[in-house]
Design goal:
The complex is a heterodimer of chains A (about 280) and B (about 280). Chain A contains eight helices and two strands. A two-stranded antiparallel ribbon of chain A has the order 1-2. Helices cover about 65% and strands about 0% of the residues of chain A. With about 280 residues, chain A is an all-alpha fold. The radius of gyration of chain A is 20 Å and the shape is elongated. By secondary structure, chain B is mainly alpha-helical. Chain B has one domain. Chain B is globular and about 65 Å long. Chain B starts with 13 loop residues before the first helix and ends in a 16-residue tail after the last helix. At the A-B interface, α1, α4, α7 and α8 of A face α4, α5 and α8 of B.
Chain lengths: ~280, ~280
């Protein structure tokens, strides 16, 4: 068997036709939702699309190093995009879920802070291990000077590597990514929870207090599912590793925004259909 | 065993595994309908067998997809499989007896669109992408539906959301003691996601052989089925849960022994080292 049959040719190029098809698909899905549930359902779907786009866009900020980072040969956190986004976003989602009763704004902000905090702690511990455990300094391989602090980078970069450790700009990127992804995940959860709280009592012929466990659990698992779909699509967009907002790969974000919007709309429509059909 | 794994030069073709996986999962899911026909919960274990069949198929799909070096790690494929699968599966449970078929169709549609998005909008340009993501979404939906059947004995929305608690001999309806209300679905999600992403991740490399990977998948599947069977004690009768538990244990033991045997076959050499070596001179 061939382990690597053909390398993917994923470049930075946009595919205008596919982007247009994506936008049309998004409008069609929104149209279907407007047809089946014009008020509550459409509002929930728009909220979910916004949440999904926030996740997709936010994940681009997170410094993902993958396996090379684990060997100190590339900058970033030493794991895959899906794992990192899931870790940060779900931490935010759970944080936001606790604050669900405080209203939309408070809950979304709580979720964002939860995700950002999770990423800040992760980034700090990653640098602790790089610096004190592996004995390597933080140096970016993609830029000459750190865009935020102005520190020069090439002097600290080892030969034959793409940089290593977690430069300050990557740290800041990680926190911003956690904020956006955590807020987006919470927004999806809240939209679904409100929808289920309003519709499930009549559907299941029970009081709101009785169906709360079902509403919370169903909204939670849908939010987790949509979160993972968006995170993995973004992972496909950046094909493995990214250093943070200063990385040239960051410019690919418009593709991920379109893909996330369509994917969230599609998954969201399924989540809405479960209660309106 | 629901799916027989055989060695053929170069392995079994993927289409054969796919067709076998779809048929075996669907048949097992529908056999669990005997629960309704006979009015018992004894046939819930068919859900677990559907899980194993779907996982074996999904593991081979992950192999096909990840051979292209997608650069995001094998686990991401397992995550998107279940992320899209759970959505299709939950909507499908609304359709009563047709649920497994509807899950197949819905998951295929969701997977198809996700595959198109990754290949065209995100410019991945991987030949196997669209088909693989479609298959993985169906695998995710079937696995979760299998777990739902294993734990609750049914695959309809009503069966998954309503349970009952017995307080002082009185049976009261409770939505908390259910597959969805009790968030058992989250555990099922992770049990399945781990079981689908682990085998190829563990077996990949130049020494990859198909039968060894698929045997490991079956082993992971039965191990997940065992955990799910333990959880099913809360929702179905003790006797029915015991049947699932014993079947899972037998299946796990059998596949584990076979897997160790296949690993020995594929290894360059094998030293049966003991955990604590005997020190000479005692």
């Amino acid at each position: 068997m061939t382990a690597v049959a053909a390398k993917p040719a994923a470049g930075g190029a946009m595919n205008p036709t596919a982007m247009a098809v994506g936008v049309v698909l998004l409008i069609v899905i929104l149209g279907i939702c407007w047809k089946v549930s014009p008020g509550l359902g459409l509002m929930a779907l728009i909220g979910m699309v916004v949440g999904g786009v926030l996740i997709g866009f936010g994940t681009h900020f997170v410094p993902v190093g993958g396996a090379p980072a684990a060997m100190g040969q590339a900058p970033g956190i030493a794991t895959g995009v899906a794992m990192l986004a899931a870790g940060a976003g779900l931490a935010g989602l759970f944080g936001g879920a606790w604050a669900a009763e405080q209203g939309l704004v408070v809950a979304v902000v709580t979720g964002a802070v939860g995700g950002g905090l999770m990423m800040a702690i992760t980034c700090m511990m990653v640098n602790f291990i790089y610096v004190f455990g592996m004995g390597i300094p933080a140096a970016s391989g993609k830029v000459k000077v750190d865009p935020i602090t102005g520190d020069t980078q090439p002097e600290f970069k080892s030969q034959g590597t793409e940089g290593h450790g977690l430069p300050f700009v990557s740290f800041v990127g990680g926190v911003i990514g956690g904020l956006l992804a955590g807020g987006g995940g919470t927004l999806i959860y809240l939209m679904l929870l409100d929808l289920y709280k309003a519709t499930l009592p009549t559907l299941m012929k029970a009081t709101e207090a009785q169906i709360m466990p079902v509403a919370i659990s169903a909204a939670g698992i849908f939010a987790v599912g949509m979160f993972l779909v968006n995170a993995v699509l973004t992972a496909y967009n950046i094909t493995g590793t990214i250093e943070g907002p200063h990385d040239p790969k960051f410019k690919r974000w418009p593709r991920a925004v379109v893909a996330s919007a369509v994917a969230s709309a599609l998954c969201g429509l399924a989540a809405i259909l479960i209660v309106v059909v | 065993m629901t799916v027989k794994i055989e060695v053929i030069a170069g392995g079994i073709p993927h289409t054969k595994i796919m067709v076998g996986g779809i048929i075996a999962s669907l048949v097992c899911l529908y056999l669990s309908y005997l629960n309704v026909v006979t009015g018992t919960e004894m046939f819930s274990f068919f859900g677990g067998l559907a899980v194993v069949a779907a996982l074996i198929w999904g593991s081979n799909t992950i192999k096909v997809l990840c051979s292209y070096g997608i650069g995001t790690g094998v686990p991401s494929a397992g995550m998107i499989a279940f992320g899209s699968g759970v959505i299709a599966m939950l909507l499908a449970t609304k359709f009563g007896i047709a649920a497994p078929i509807v899950a197949l169709v819905l998951a295929a549609v969701v997977g198809l669109i996700l595959g198109y998005l990754s290949n065209e909008v995100l410019n991945m340009k991987i030949p196997a992408m669209v088909q693989s993501l479609t298959e993985l979404a169906v695998v995710g939906a079937f696995t979760l539906m299998g777990f739902a059947v294993l734990m609750t004995g049914g695959f309809t929305f009503a069966a998954l959301t309503a349970g009952s608690v017995t307080i002082m001999g009185l049976s009261l309806p409770s939505y908390q003691v259910s597959f969805i209300g009790g968030s058992l679905i989250a555990t099922a999600f992770m049990l399945g996601a781990l079981a689908i992403q682990h085998p190829f991740n563990a077996c990949l490399g130049p020494g990859w052989t198909q039968d060894r990977m698929l045997m490991l998948t079956a082993e992971c599947g039965f191990l997940s089925m065992f955990v799910a069977a333990v959880m099913s004690f809360a929702l179905i009768t003790t006797g029915s849960a015991l049947i699932s538990l014993v079947l899972a244990l037998i299946g796990w033991g059998y596949t584990y022994m076979k897997y160790i045997g296949l690993s020995k076959r594929d290894a360059a050499s094998w030293l049966d080292a003991k955990p604590i070596p005997d020190v000479e001179g005692h």
